[in-house]
Amino acid sequence: MKRSGVGLDAVADWHNLSAAFHRAALGKGHRTEVIQFKKDLPTRLANLRQDILAGTVTVGQMRCFHIRDPKPRIIHAPCFPERVLHHALMAPVGPVLDRGLVADTYACRTGKGALAAVRRAQHHLQRWPWYAKIDIRAYFANIDHTILGELLARRFKDQPLLALMARIINAHHAAPGKGLPIGALTSQQFANYYLSGLDRLLLEACRVRGFVRYMDDMVWWGGDRESVRDALIAAGEYAHNRLGLEIKQPVQVGQSRHGLSFCGYRILPGRLLLSRRRKRRYAECRQQWETAYRDGLIDALGLQAGYASAYAITAHADAVTWRREQLRRSPLDADLALV
């Protein structure tokens, strides 16, 4: 494998840093830390450039908070200067990592995404009779820093650049020598690349008939149950021995005609239905906007916009009948609807 010549000078380039600031500030221009950074932008970028080249840039300053969507998670949001650093780093590094991924990896990639992964999975359901679906136990928390560093060193040869990435990786620990923070741009890219070897094992060594991965959720297909299970054994050994990861149990092995749940949808060969999680998100979103309308916090136009956002959660599924039933069961109060 020929390693990339991308170096630290590409990260610290003036044009790259300026573009990184604008990407990091997108949608956050009202925040105090963004306003303060922008007030003295040339000096702040000059200092950041100097620190990057000197290898002394500050990393690991993050704000932690909890979310529950759909399960409890701890999010680590980098401070704004570090967000700028992450964007500056991934601008030249991200495309190199992306070229190392197989086509059927869909997370954190331009032109792909969850819906494209769902459509691809439905395509394979229509072609192959058996599938296996797995995900990794506590994936982000169990990514090994040493192994990740070795994988990155196979793609990049510039030592100062590798040292910067190592500092960012080692700034967070879920356990000694392990873990990437959920919520950082670099973590998404590194985590997506971490499983690239497993992708190639399944596609090139196990010769699975079809394959789709969205971050650590992956599905593959075969012509019979035995071939699917053989690939499952190989995947489990590779994940444990080469990546220090464990596949969450129990795994799903089933017939394609019965469908599968993936990326928030219940996928059948000829239909795309809503998962329980997506149904719950629709109900919660609709209730939130209707409560705001009842309390006088928004007007009818605001409620209409809120309904549009709730509808977007279900728009790509075959859910017209289900939405009508939800509106019939819990309509907006008639007196308020006429206001």
UniProtKB/TrEMBL annotation:
Q: Which domain of life is it from?
A: Bacteria
Q: Pinpoint the Reverse transcriptase domain residues.
A: 1-267
User: SUPFAM superfamilies this protein is in?
Assistant: DNA/RNA polymerases
Q: Which CDD domains match?
A: RT_Bac_retron_I (cd01646)
Instruction: Identify one Pfam family in the record.
Output: RVT_1
Q: Which family does it belong to?
A: Belongs to the bacterial reverse transcriptase family.
State what protein this is by name.
Reverse transcriptase domain-containing protein
Q: Which organism is it from?
A: Candidatus Methylumidiphilus alinenensis
